[in-house]
Design a protein that fits this description.
The complex is a heterotrimer of chains A (596), B (351) and C (330).
Chain A lengths: L9 H30 L3 H26 L3 H29 L4 H31 L8 H22 L2 H51 L5 E13 L4 H5 L2 H20 L6 H18 L1 E13 L3 E5 L6 H8 L7 E6 L2 E2 L5 H8 L2 E4 L13 H11 L6 H14 L5 H5 L8 H13 L5 E5 L7 H18 L2 E6 L2 H7 L2 E6 L2 E7 H6 L4 H9 L40 H5 L5 E4 L2 E3 L4 H6 L1
Parallel strand pairs in A: 3-8, 3-9, 6-7, 7-8
Antiparallel strand pairs in A: 1-2, 1-4, 4-5, 9-10, 10-12, 11-12
Helix pairs in contact in A: 1-2, 1-6, 2-3, 3-4, 4-5, 5-6, 6-11, 12-13, 12-15, 13-15, 15-16
Chain B lengths: L1 E14 L2 E14 L3 E5 L6 H9 L6 E10 L2 H7 L5 H6 L17 H7 L4 E4 L13 H12 L5 H14 L16 H13 L5 E5 L7 H18 L2 E6 L2 H7 L2 E6 L2 E7 H6 L4 H9 L48 E3 L2 E3 L2 H9 L1
Parallel strand pairs in B: 3-7, 3-8, 5-6, 6-7
Antiparallel strand pairs in B: 1-2, 1-4, 8-9, 9-11, 10-11
Helix pairs in contact in B: 5-6, 5-7, 6-7, 7-8
Chain C lengths: L1 H30 L4 H7 L5 H10 L6 H13 L5 E2 L4 E2 H36 L4 H15 L2 H18 L21 H39 L2 H8 L4 H30 L2 H6 L5 H10 L3 H29 L1 H5 L1
Antiparallel strand pairs in C: 1-2
Classes of the chains: A alpha/beta (596), B alpha/beta (351), C mainly alpha (330).
Chain lengths: 596, 351, 330
């Protein structure tokens, strides 16, 4: 990896720009104040200053967005901060504009006050953002924002009070303090930002170095590319607020309590007060709202080696796609760890994650929607190369794209590079998707149902190409599918998932020929066979449909549908056990079942 | 004797870029109690064929020519003498006994009394095939209301409950709305809707696609049992050969609007004649038996606006001969069916 | 949660929204320059006794928060304030012009919604036909012309040129009734009112019908591609049954919301049309009040408009809940 491969410095540049603009703003402030002092009241100047302030804040937010783009919690914070900032800027401009007109001065005054409040909120949010950033490796301590925000509010209040005193000395003193304070704080903010941008740069270069240094060692790491350890993803269910408030039981209970309260007025018996009742009523609502979770992925562990295709198989809603998204770092896990080439993702900073992502690619399910209709095939496949500045020479890019197209069987490549997605058939599009994923020579690819939208006659071609490329380039491949027959074609090892858990995991042929877990057995028996004589097992061993992931059955998750379930299964939650070499099963009774 | 016979059916879609020959010269027969599997890739015309049988082709589609002979067609005519004013004007000889059994010559009102009554259709339930704003039971009862208006409301409702229980849905679910049912139950409800008025023929369009494997197995099993119970004739449209292998007795393979092979399921699965059928069966991954290498057909399905000349499969065919690109093959009889391929036509000629 | 919970939820929201709306209206009214106390203090045309009574009734000498309380109390007593321009209570001023607006806009609204929905369905069902093409062309043509211009055109044609050409029949160009008609009998008066109503009503109704049916057409065309329409046909339903039993009910859902939202707009009136035809409706009244700074009147009208809009929306949402079972459980 050369220095040209290092991703953009734009956020650092933006941060620095923000800092300089704050500095510049402070200077402009000084100049403006001098003008005001010497030339009297010039209200339009305040509009200009507020516009300038907004501009520098906008630059600042932009730089933050760049830094924080990958981590959802920080991104959320930046969004909140920037929306408050927009409100602040908007209000300030309005109030300043109103001040120009004598009639509207009362309104301007009120709006100005509100804008100050919004300003403190927005700056608090900015401060929070910085705090969060510092948590993941950026040492961007910047209490200065908070200080600046509070100062604005305090100075405004002081100004108002001083105006009411009608004492010229006091007013002048307050004005001078305000102006000096504002200017010095602006200087401080600008200086801090520039300092911070330097800090980011240092960290950024450190990341590059660390990642580069670490890689050769990891080659020896048993060839494990990706390892998931006790991975967990819970989606909180926000049940409707009104559903909880108007639930019949709650209304009934409260009705009874209220009736008791009113009857107690006459008997003078001490019961809950109205206040307590209300608190109880609404308190419970919030409690219950936060308790529910969908257990999408719950305690899932596996390893994927170099040159290996690992299959995740299960019915819809079993959590296989969520697992894929977790491994792509597109979702934040709520528990457990993911090791990519031995690097723990939770220890990585945003920058490092961004670097790691370059080595992880995705193949989408729907070839009709995953390719941008306005990009030519060349642009689609070359996009990662261009985005990451891996190759800047257009001729070389085209060369590389052609090579890649040929390797996915779109021959001759010249015919395809200038076409647009709508001119290709579904199978050809999916091949383009495969080429796009493989062009960066990734270490790891996640493919979520890559062929389910394709026709049978085309499926095989795409599968074969993916398999071939995986073997040729030594990529680790996660193949997510609901179709065991397809998994059999593609995968070296398969894991069967049920309600967020892996119930059985083992080498493909072994698992398909001799499944041990009752669910895996049912799943395999359920797959239709393209052979009129091999009828599906007439009596399906299991009944019903998958329960919801919200109230997961106690004990073994499969017990309500399992024909072999006994009392033990309703209490103990089985862990994955190694039955044979590399063959893991999570069942309490697998021995007895297989002896039957 | 065939209950339904499709002869040389041609359905085209007229677009600005030319006519799309979605169904081109398709012929097959369906006997009483027979289950026919209609397989092919998406866009090969299998759904259009069945919509043509129901005469539910929307603009800009048009049935160009062909015959659809329905054996019990006379029942419809005698059953339904009352006609709308418009039909009376356009079909003056309605009561005429000389009328054909060809459904394509039926008036719209007569077709209506056939749909849902004699021939009914099951759509893919996971999609929006049930109206979201009506109760499931009422939607099923609607079929009875149309075709048996003399039935009392209570009786009709009892029938609805009956059929729901037959397909394996709890009777309390009849008052539910579609969004309250799971995917498997929606599909069962659709099957119930198709069966409630004891039709002769049921056409199922991808009935188990998009269902999970185990639910799919449950629904297929129920379908098979019901078919045996009512001695139904069925046409099963699907792209999934394994579903057909499970349920059907006869197999028809379509490619690019043409029926390329038609015959007994077992025979065809064991020794497919047409190279496309061979490739399709070999391309299908299986979970049973030893792992076999899959066959890649290669190439891509043709654009039906200007299909390849001659045999439409020849650009992708591994056994293509010079004649294949020049002349269209005709139907050559084979064991219990026919195949449209020059390989066998030449052989036949030599004999 | 079911229908009951759904309705309770909507009622609660509507109440909160109304409260917020009237609060905003009140404070806006006091923030804008020239607040009521000043106006009463400086306006010489208000007689001193009346002024004192008003100042006390509205607590205009009290602090703002107290005024707000008084404002709320008065509002619940049905008192919306005193229009110092018209020298009478706001409720009376609005009550005077409201019947005319309701007559004009209400009639047009009912006609629009009913005819528009059915015309839209009818046209969508025959999509691509000559009728449909004609409809699309008409819609675009009529929408391209400003409504007030159409109004002026109508006046020119049916009221001016018709008389110039010496035809026996014409429509009046302005007003809602002939001066002095209040002394006529019931039927002559009714005919007179209808005669005056004809032109503005036609202009509004043509535009409205086209708009509503355009909306309905779009919805229905989308619905007709759904799978359940195919299912319905496969059941053997005839086209009318498919249209009205299956497609119509689904397509009408967004229309219901729109109807609800438009109810509030009725009071606001069609300012342009009322101005062009010099129709004494609330739209014109409100316009005059605005340009002449009669804030109590504007405030009163705003409160009524926001209340009716919310009421309309509430009704629409409740109807929605009845029609669409999915909404209730969400």
């Amino acid at each position: 990896m050369t220095s040209s491969e290092i991703s953009d410095y734009s956020s650092i540049r933006l941060m620095r720009m923000a800092g300089f603009s704050f500095l510049g703003l402070a200077i402009i402030f000084v100049v403006l104040e001098i003008i005001v002092v010497f030339f009297g009241e010039l209200s339009y100047l305040s509009i200009i200053t507020s516009l300038l302030l907004s501009l520098s804040v906008v630059i600042l937010v932009l730089s933050l967005r760049k830094v924080a783009l990958q981590t959802p919690s920080i991104r959320r914070n930046v969004i909140i901060a920037s929306s408050w900032l927009i409100g602040y800027i908007f209000l300030t401009i309005i109030s300043e504009t109103f001040f120009v007109f004598l009639i509207l001065q009362v309104a301007a005054f009120v709006i100005g006050l509100i804008s100050m409040l919004v300003r403190i909120i927005s700056f608090t949010q900015l401060n929070n953002t910085f705090k969060r950033l510092s948590k993941i490796g950026y040492n961007l301590d910047s209490q200065i924002f908070l200080l600046y925000g509070w100062f604005a509010v305090l100075s405004t209040v002081a100004l108002i009070v001083s105006v009411y005193t009608l004492n010229l000395t006091v007013i002048i003193a307050v004005v001078i303090t305000t102006v000096v304070g504002e200017i010095s704080l602006l200087f401080a903010v600008g200086y801090k930002l520039i300092q911070n941008s330097n800090a980011i740069k240092d960290i950024f270069e450190g990341v590059q170095k660390r990642f580069l240094d670490d890689r050769p060692e990891l080659e020896d790491h048993e060839n494990i590319v990706v390892e998931a350890v006790n991975l967990e993803k819970l989606f909180p269910v926000i049940s409707g607020f009104f559903e909880s408030i108007f639930s019949i039981e709650r209304i009934k209970n409260t009705g009874r309590a209220t009736a008791k309260y009113f009857s107690s007025i006459f008997s003078k018996e001490r019961t809950k007060t109205i206040k307590e009742l209300t608190r109880e009523y609404f308190g419970k609502v919030f409690e219950e709202r936060e308790k529910l979770f969908v257990h999408a992925v719950d305690d899932v562990s596996f390893r994927i080696h170099k040159r290996e295709t690992f299959g995740l198989v299960g019915e819809s809603g079993c959590g296989k796609s969520t697992t894929g998204l977790l491994l792509l770092y597109l979702l934040e896990s709520t528990g457990g760890k993911i090791f990519f080439k031995g690097l723990d993702s939770s220890e990585l900073s945003v920058r490092e994650l961004k670097e790691v992502r370059r080595y992880i690619q995705i193949i989408f399910q729907n070839p009709y929607e995953s390719l941008s209709p306005r990009f030519s095939i060349l642009d689609i496949i070359a996009e990662p190369l261009r985005l990451l500045n891996i190759e800047t020479d257009e001729a070389k890019i085209e060369e590389k794209v052609k090579e890649e197209l040929e390797s996915v069987g779109l021959i001759p490549a010249e015919d395809f590079i200038d076409r647009f997605p709508h001119e290709l058939s579904g199978g050809q599009r999916q091949r383009v998707g495969v080429a796009r994923a493989f062009i960066l020579d990734p270490e790891f690819i996640v493919a979520d149902e890559p062929v389910s939208m394709l026709d049978v006659s085309i499926r095989v071609g795409v599968l074969k190409i993916m398999r071939q490329l995986t073997l040729d380039r030594g990529t680790a491949f996660l193949f997510i599918t609901h179709d065991l027959a397809l998994a059999r074609v593609m995968c070296d090892r398969i894991a069967v998932m049920y309600l967020g858990r892996i119930v059985e995991q083992g080498p493909t042929e072994e698992l398909i020929q001799k499944p041990i877990h009752p669910y895996a057995k049912a799943l395999i028996a359920g797959v239709p066979k393209p052979d009129p004589d091999a009828k599906r097992t007439e009596e399906l061993p299991i009944i019903g449909e998958v329960p919801s992931g919200i109230d997961v059955p106690a004990g073994c998750r499969f017990n309500p549908r399992c024909p072999f379930a006994i009392d033990k299964c309703k209490i103990y939650d089985p862990k994955l056990e190694e039955v044979e070499e590399n063959h893991l099963v999570a069942c309490l009774r697998y021995k007895e079942i297989n002896d039957m | 004797m065939a209950l339904l016979e499709v002869k040389n059916l041609k359905t085209y879609f007229h677009t600005r870029a030319g006519s799309v020959k979605a169904v081109d010269n398709v012929s097959f027969k369906l006997g009483k109690g027979e289950v026919l599997g209609l397989a092919g890739e998406s866009g090969c015309g299998k759904t259009t064929t069945c919509l043509s049988i129901m005469q539910m082709i929307d603009f800009p589609g048009e049935i160009m020519e062909g015959q659809i002979i329905y054996e019990n067609a006379f029942e419809v005519i005698t059953e339904n003498p009352s006609k709308s004013f418009r039909d009376r004007i356009f079909n003056r000889n309605v009561e005429n006994k000389k009328r054909t059994k060809n459904l394509l010559e039926f008036s719209e009102a007569e077709m209506r009394s056939i749909r849902g009554n004699h021939i009914s259709m099951v759509f893919q339930g996971a999609m929006n095939a049930l109206n979201p704003v009506h109760r499931v039971g009422n939607q099923i009862q609607e079929v009875l209301n149309i075709h048996e208006p003399e039935l009392e409301k209570d009786e009709a409702w009892d029938k609805v409950i009956d059929i729901l229980e037959t397909v394996g849905i709890d009777s309390v679910r009849a008052r539910d709305y579609p969004h309250q049912l799971s995917g498997g139950m929606k599909q069962r409800a659709l099957i119930a809707m198709a069966l409630v008025n004891n039709p002769d023929i049921v056409i199922a369009d991808e009935p188990v696609t998009a269902l999970d494997v185990i639910v799919q197995a449950q629904v297929l099993k129920a379908t098979k049992e019901l078919q045996r119970k009512f001695d139904l004739s069925m046409i099963m449209i699907t792209h999934d050969l394994s579903v057909i292998a499970e349920v059907c007795e006869t197999l028809a393979i379509m490619y690019a609007g043409k029926l390329v092979e038609y015959g007994d399921l077992r025979t065809l699965f064991k020794e497919p004649f047409h190279p496309y059928t061979q490739a399709l069966i070999n391309a299908f991954p299986s979970i049973a038996g030893p792992k076999k290498d899959l066959y890649d057909i290669g190439g891509f399905p043709p654009d039906l606006r200007n299909p390849p000349s001659g045999c439409r499969f020849h650009p992708r065919c591994s056994k293509a001969m010079p004649i294949c690109s020049k002349k269209e093959p005709s139907n050559t009889p084979i064991k219990n069916g026919y195949v449209a391929c020059w390989l066998y036509e030449e052989e036949e000629k030599r004999k | 949660m079911g229908l009951r919970g759904y309705i309770a939820k909507k009622l609660f929201f509507a109440a909160v929204a109304f409260f917020v709306a009237i609060t905003i209206v009140f404070f806006l009214y006091h923030v804008i320059p020239g607040n009521p106390a000043n106006i009463f203090a400086t306006d010489r045309t208000v007689n001193p006794d009346q002024r004192d009574a008003l100042l006390e009734r509205w607590g205009l000498n009290e602090p703002l928060w107290k005024q707000y309380g008084i404002f709320l109390r008065n509002l619940f007593q049905g008192d919306l304030g005193f229009s110092y321009l018209q020298k009478m209570p706001v409720t009376d001023v609005i009550g005077e012009s409201l019947p005319w607006t309701l007559l004009l806009l209400g009639t047009s609204f009912v006609l629009n919604a009913v005819i528009g929905i059915f015309l839209g369905a009818f046209v969508a069902w025959r999509r691509g036909s000559k009728l449909d093409t004609g409809f699309v062309l008409t819609y675009n043509f009529y929408n391209a012309i400003p409504l007030f211009f159409v109004g002026m055109l109508f006046i020119a044609l049916f009221s001016f040129y018709v008389r110039k050409w010496g035809w026996g029949f014409y429509f009046p160009a302005y007003g809602a009734q002939t001066a002095g008609s209040s002394e006529w009998g019931f039927f002559p008066r009714l005919v007179d009112i209808l005669w005056h109503l004809a032109l503005p009503l036609t202009v509004l109704t043509i535009a409205g019908i086209l708009g509503w049916s355009w909306f309905m057409r779009g919805n229905l065309i989308n619905i007709l591609t759904e799978d359940y329409i195919k299912t319905a046909r496969a059941k053997g339903l005839n086209e009318n049954q498919v249209l009205y039993k299956h497609a119509f009910r689904n397509a009408i859902l967004p229309v219901v919301t729109n109807i609800g939202m438009s109810i509030g707009g009725l009071i606001g009136g069609a300012v342009l049309i009322e101005t062009v035809f010099s129709y004494p409706g609330t739209g014109r009244m409100l316009y005059e009040a605005l340009i002449r700074h009669d804030y109590p009147l504007v405030q009163g009208a705003f409160i009524i408009i926001s209340g009716l809009t919310l009421l309309g929306l509430l009704i629409a949402e409740i109807i929605y809940g009845f029609i669409d079972p999915r909404i209730r459980t969400e």
